[in-house]
Biotin carboxylase (Anaeroplasma bactoclasticum), 455 residues
Amino acid sequence: MFKKILIANRGEIAVRIIRACKELGIQTVAVYSKGDEEALHKELANEAVCIGDAAPKDSYLNVENIITAACLSGCDAIHPGFGFLSENPEFARMVEKCGLTFIGPNPSVMEKMGNKNEAIQSMIAAGVPVVPGSHKAVNLEEGLDVAESIGYPVLIKASAGGGGKGIRLVESKEEFTPLFNEAKEEALKFFSNDEVYIEKFIKHPKHIEVQLMCDKHGNVIHLFERNCSLQRRNQKMIEEAPCISISQDLKNKLYDSAIKACKWIGYDSVGTIEFLVDDSENYYFMEMNTRVQVEHCVTEAVTNVDIVKNMIKIAYGLPLQFKQADIKLYGYAIECRINAEDPRNDFRPNPGKINFLHTPGGMGVRIDSAVYPGYTISPYYDSMILKVICFAKTRLECIRKMRQALEELIVDGVKTTTEFDYVLLHHPEFILGHYDTSFIEGFIGELKENGKLIQ
Ligand code: ADP
Ligand code: ADP
Ligand code: MG
């Protein structure tokens, strides 16, 4: 097994990976920026190396400094976590060139799936359904033509997109040009790549994704699905597993398609295939995330499989310890991402000092966090500070457990999304499970109407 792993990330995912390494008896090296001197991941790792200034481009995206830190501290592998360099094939190649193992898929498959247009082309070749659209990057005239032929509304999406950025909904031809330019600008800003493509806007879809686990010996299994339809501005807020609002027949199709896709592209790590599902249970490939995901914990809860530890073992070259038949569902899980944001102020990030913190506990309650009392949340990074994951035998029991957990959670000093989630967990449509990706927007509208979210 690896002797020492550098974790090229920060926040709760860095902490999560350090814990997995420790359980496997692997030494850990944290990297941190000058803005993260107080960060928890720095304290929990066996060693910590400062890799630059607070701005991500100077530190967590600084390939040279990260690889140098890994080599000088005697690491034999790098885990990239999510965000930052996790889906950057050049980084993965550089890591391997320096004689280290990149804990993720091989760089060429990452490259293929990292560009959404290339990914869509691969899926068409593999026989997996995709959303009607341009299926390639387009210029303004081509974009207008494609939109005209598939019919409005359409989405303009960044080819290199991620984290819900670089996406614009266009309702009519008149709106197309300004939104096209906006999407391109945002794509350039976030991904240094201004390529965009056109996709049919699927109305009121569910976002259902399949967790996969593949090794370097051709074994491919799925770990069931997650319903990630509770999104605000294309960013996930609450996730659950399994999904109760689609048929078993459709689930089987999603698993089969996801496995077929992984085999076709030669995928060799843990990963996720995201699908859109419409009202008539048509399903479409949306993208593949070639990394561990924020919401991997709900799948860990319902399957009792440690995704991060397995990801490390797979990267080392070990064959999967499981066959498909070994993977069972033991219950229901929900995850609430707690963000330092102010729901009463359009969810504006609200960094600052946490004066007091109380996290819930008890049977079936998991907290993955990077904060502690007295910690100051940095304005430089993502506003997600903590995740609450609840697990129970039935979904209703799980909802009750999550309500209780959120009721107990105290993050004093900064505004968070806790109360927003708590109210949402009481909404009849959520309880019934019949929600789609437009639910949160409607819910925010309801809250505003009732004077509960004053802008
Ligand atoms: P998921 O939530 O399914 O794991 P997301 O797409 O929401 O995936 O991204 C997870 C995290 O990584 C978020 O913090 C997001 O902001 C960040 N992220 C995703 N893609 C990129 C990217 N291409 N560049 C920078 N950050 C990204
Ligand atoms: P990202 O890489 O930023 O996560 P995705 O392609 O996964 O981008 O899309 C993010 C979200 O946007 C999806 O989860 C879904 O809610 C919405 N979305 C994406 N494509 C479509 C589409 N064609 N029709 C309707 N909604 C979509
Ligand atoms: Mg996505």
About this structure: The chain is about 35% helix and 25% strand.
